[in-house]
Amino acid sequence: MDKTIQTAAEAVAQIPDGATVMIGGFGGSGAPIELIHALIDQGARHLTVVNNNAGNGHVGLAALIEQGRVDKLICSFPRSADPGVFVAAYRAGKIKLEIVPQGTLAERIRAAGAGIPAFYTPTGFGTDVAEGKPVAVFEGRSYVQERWLKADYALIKAELGDPHGNLTYRMAARNFNPVMASAATTTIAQVSRLVPLGGIDPEHVVTPGIFVSALTEIPNPAQEEDLNRAEAIYP
Amino acid sequence: MIDITEIKLSNAQIAWRAAQDIEDGAYVNLGIGFPEMVAQFQPHGKQAIFHTENGVLDFGKSPDKGHEDWDLINAGKKAITLNPGTSFFHHADSFAMVRGGHLDVAILGAYQVAQTGDLANWSTGKGGIPAVGGAMDLVQSAKRIAVITDHVTKTGAPKLVDTCTMPLTGVGCVTRIYSSLAVIDIEVAGFVLREKIAAISLDDLQSLTGAPLHLDGPLQELACPKELA
């Protein structure tokens, strides 16, 4: 078994119009910039994107939105140092927004990966985000029912990867990447270094390969923060 | 109405006061922006461990300019550094720490706090783009929820109110407010005044507060280091 794919372009080639795509990262940390740019080049439209944020500057997720590819965004925090692209699309009515509290977003994704269709959380009880959702009382406290959040594809970024798709991450770039890997039908990882089988100590594997469909090596991946400081625009 | 511009505490002084109540060994989450400042004023001999939602526990100060590693950031997307003892974890684990009640204290900013402990801090409800982040999770689940805030808005309206008019972040969650004029607990009776700055009278403080201030035991002076003014 070898899940390795030569290029980012080949890795994202099958993503169709209308797909729901989870994109890992928290701000720029852990964002799979090269896979997102390959998806822009590939041309898929009418996407629903799940990400913690809504892009920053004119690269990565912001560029995908700027190119008009995203119909709906599910996120917790659509603000950034330079959120202009999302704000313009939102104000023009070109993109729908579903705001999800960050912990609920993470748990909805985790639940999907774990086969749990719904769960109860104290988060959001009595607020606008709980509107229309079932509420139940456990041990005297009220909880809101939230449902799993699945995706057709997940685009994630990891540090080391082996041909079976076992992954490690680098520092806080881990964030949403492991849970998203488990919640999508097809998970595509860009890894900064591809190592042979046995090249990752089993004790250090964070995402076991069962959650990963394909991986491609992108050495020295771009950091969104660096691109934005250089005022980069993609494409 | 009394002009408080000259007498109110600076943000650094409010953050300093909030930091004095963080116990040694506490696991603490600081909201993005102003609350992050609390970490600078850890009293000597009290070591808090800071949690950031994006998956880091026990992180250090900001790095020097030019030494940032953008894979190592806090929830405010600012660069941080490692401590001996730092750990990394994914988002679902991070919010298990939050929802599971493992954090001792969360300190957040506020648009409005009601005398019932309701907090509004995520959306003005006026057509701005809402952004909730991790606030709704934090306010329901940390053992102690404190707010640091100016006592009134830029236009002089009370931020401590009878009932929040803005969309809620959480219901009945805030237990202590560190404002630019006072330290106020939220108890069954409502706002209980614990400390106020010497330069404001009780009547003037009440006139700037949107619900009754109750007294319970001795009222202390809220005194902060002058060099932080």
TrEMBL record, chain A:
InterPro entries: 3-oxoacid_CoA-transf_A, CoA_trans_fam_I, CoA_transf_BS, NagB/RpiA_transferase-like
Keyword tags: Transferase
Molecular function, one GO term: CoA-transferase activity
Superkingdom, taxonomy of origin: Bacteria
PROSITE patterns in the record: COA_TRANSF_1
Protein family membership: Belongs to the 3-oxoacid CoA-transferase subunit A family.
Full protein name: 3-oxoadipate CoA-transferase
Organism listed in the record: Pararhodobacter oceanensis
TrEMBL record, chain B:
Keywords (A to Z) from UniProt: Transferase
Family: Belongs to the 3-oxoacid CoA-transferase subunit B family.
Species lineage: Bacteria, Pseudomonadati, Pseudomonadota, Alphaproteobacteria, Rhodobacterales
InterPro entries membership: 3-oxoacid_CoA-transf_B, CoA_trans_fam_I, NagB/RpiA_transferase-like
GO MF assignments: CoA-transferase activity
Keyword Transferase: yes
Stated name of the protein: 3-oxoacid CoA-transferase
Pfam families xref list: CoA_trans
Highest taxon listed in the record's lineage: Bacteria
PANTHER family: ACETATE COA-TRANSFERASE SUBUNIT ALPHA, KETOACID-COENZYME A TRANSFERASE
Transferase found in the keyword field: yes
SUPFAM superfamilies with a match to the protein in the record: NagB/RpiA/CoA transferase-like (SSF100950)
